[in-house]
Hints:
Blueprint: E1 11-14, E2 23-30, E3 35-38, E4 43-48, E5 58-63, E6 66-67, E7 71-73, E8 85-88, E9 94-97
Antiparallel strand pairs: 1-2, 1-7, 2-3, 3-6, 4-5, 8-9
Amino acid sequence: MNTMSIKKGDTVVVLSGKDKGKQGTVLEAMPETRKVIVEKINVATRHQKPRTQGETGGIVKKEAPIYACKVMRVCPKCGKPTRPASKVGADGKRVRVCKKCGAEI
Length: 105
């Protein structure tokens, strides 16, 4: 079972690579490949051909996937990067918890 602690909509900070230290929001999570697409992180240049009549081609910048192990979740309460712990909530469902401040994520 491929489960990741990072989900779509989470705020993350990049741990390594050319964008180290930058923060962004997860646009898409891909658990099968263990990758995420983060807003304004790992931007690649693509040369795009016009596919239909009236569409313009050209050079397009778009976010490329990055490995989930290269990013860390940022707690919305304390603002620090943290590995989310899991705990059983009041309704019996699993919830993610910040290891630094204990707040529910």
